[in-house]
Amino acid sequence: MARAICLRLLTMAPKTRAQLAEALRKRDVPEEAAEAVLSRFSELGLINDEAFAAAWVDSRHHGRGLAKRALAAELRHRGVDSETVSEAVERLDPDQEEETARRLVERKLAATRSLDPQKRTRRLAGMLARKGYPSGLAFRVIREALEQEGIEMDEDFS
Hints:
By secondary structure, the protein is an all-alpha fold. The protein has 9 helices and no strands.
């Protein structure tokens, strides 16, 4: 039964070991049987939290523009251990993360043109913060984007 549950869940989408263990617990699978199946699936490579974390970081960064902090939180929420989370998010190049923040700001910039610069900055900074970008990076990228439009920002506003 535990084997069938795990196989069905894994055919729908990749899962972490913790997610599968939780699914088995919810279905009242005895702990010994669950552990035996999870261990065997790990041996066979059907469960691989390191590969899951690496793929998650690549997918969610490129697809949704999430920064390291947000990616790490999502992985921890899915039961990936701290060391694996750190290794996965550290693979993300800081220059790539900054470039992604720039692209996100550029996409949102046109929709905020009717607003005053401070309100635009707050909206753009909020969007980047929700995606996990640190405030220093966010305000630097926003300031650069607004300056390209000819809008000077006060240094003390960031």
